[in-house]
């Protein structure tokens, strides 16, 4: 029996028009925001944030400051709220308007893989939603072939150097599963957070050389930080890494535009 419930982070599907205010968290009378990162930065999109993550990330920022995960509200399933697949489909159908892009993020969405597969199948069966471009944002530690087939873009964001669990060769195998499953142009991106030369070195020495990148997926780096000030301090490291390694620099528009605010 397919799982019919998913657990959402507090913001759930966002941003939506508030029942009382008539406005979204961006102050607009219609739903949607801009994708802030990666190849589709600037693309009008609706987001679903699932609860639950299998990593606990912290980074060392400029001057030795500790920077924690920028979505702590999505770490634990116990902090989420259950929503049936039919409820989610109804909300999406009513909120999309002119939008054509949906982003599924977390937390780590693959910790709820069974329910995620059910949701994706329901989206593809909906006359209103079936042509949506769907991006899946994942940390790359878990793989599901059904999910891979059902989404248009997989955004892999390995963060192992920032976790208490540390680096594992098993994660390289999982990344390769995603790379092998998404070989068409613009179907996968590797997106890394860089806040130090050490971050660059790990990407260049410990991760990329162990992957088969024969289909040349885009490799993007973005500055570390959940506030505009933190981005300003770490951006030089990301810029230097991009130029030195011939990677692509990408912004974090959501932080630049709205700061460290959930639901934007």
Automatic annotation (TrEMBL):
S-adenosyl-L-methionine binds at residues 107, 157-159. Mg(2+) binds at residue 71. It catalyses: 6-carboxy-5,6,7,8-tetrahydropterin + H(+) = 7-carboxy-7-carbaguanine + NH4(+). Its cofactor is Mg(2+); S-adenosyl-L-methionine; [4Fe-4S] cluster. Pathway: Purine metabolism; 7-cyano-7-deazaguanine biosynthesis. [4Fe-4S] cluster binds at residues 53, 57, 69. Gene3D superfamilies: Aldolase class I. Substrate binds at residues 34-36, 49, 105. GO terms for biological process: tRNA queuosine(34) biosynthetic process. Binds 1 S-adenosyl-L-methionine per subunit. Its EC number is 4.3.99.3. Belongs to the radical SAM superfamily. 7-carboxy-7-deazaguanine synthase family. This is 7-carboxy-7-deazaguanine synthase. It comes from Candidatus [Bacteroides] periocalifornicus.
């Amino acid at each position: 029996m397919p799982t019919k419930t998913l657990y959402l982070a507090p913001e759930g599907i966002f941003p939506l028009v508030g029942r009382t205010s008539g406005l979204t968290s961006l102050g607009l009378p219609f739903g949607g925001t801009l994708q802030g990162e990666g190849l589709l930065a600037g693309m009008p999109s609706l987001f679903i944030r699932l609860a639950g993550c299998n990593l606990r990330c912290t980074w060392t920022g400029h001057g030795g400051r500790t920077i924690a995960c920028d979505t702590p509200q999505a770490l634990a399933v116990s902090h989420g709220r259950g929503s049936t697949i039919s409820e989610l489909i109804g909300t999406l159908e009513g909120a999309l308007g002119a939008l054509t892009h949906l982003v599924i993020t977390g937390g780590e969405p693959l910790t709820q893989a069974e329910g995620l597969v059910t949701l994706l199948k329901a989206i593809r069966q909906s006359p209103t939603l079936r042509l949506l471009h769907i991006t899946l944002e994942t940390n790359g530690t878990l793989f599901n072939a059904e999910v891979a087939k059902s989404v248009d873009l997989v955004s892999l964001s390995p963060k192992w150097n920032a976790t208490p669990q540390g680096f594992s060769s098993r994660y390289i195998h999982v990344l390769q599963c995603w790379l092998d499953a998404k070989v068409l142009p613009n179907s996968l991106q590797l997106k890394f957070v860089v806040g130090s030369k050490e971050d660059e070195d790990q990407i260049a020495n410990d991760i990329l050389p162990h992957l088969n990148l024969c289909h040349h997926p885009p490799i993007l780096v973005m500055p570390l930080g959940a506030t505009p000030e933190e981005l300003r301090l770490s951006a030089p490291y990301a810029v230097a890494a991009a130029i030195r390694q011939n990677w692509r620099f990408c912004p974090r528009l959501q932080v630049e535009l709205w700061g460290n605010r959930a639901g934007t």
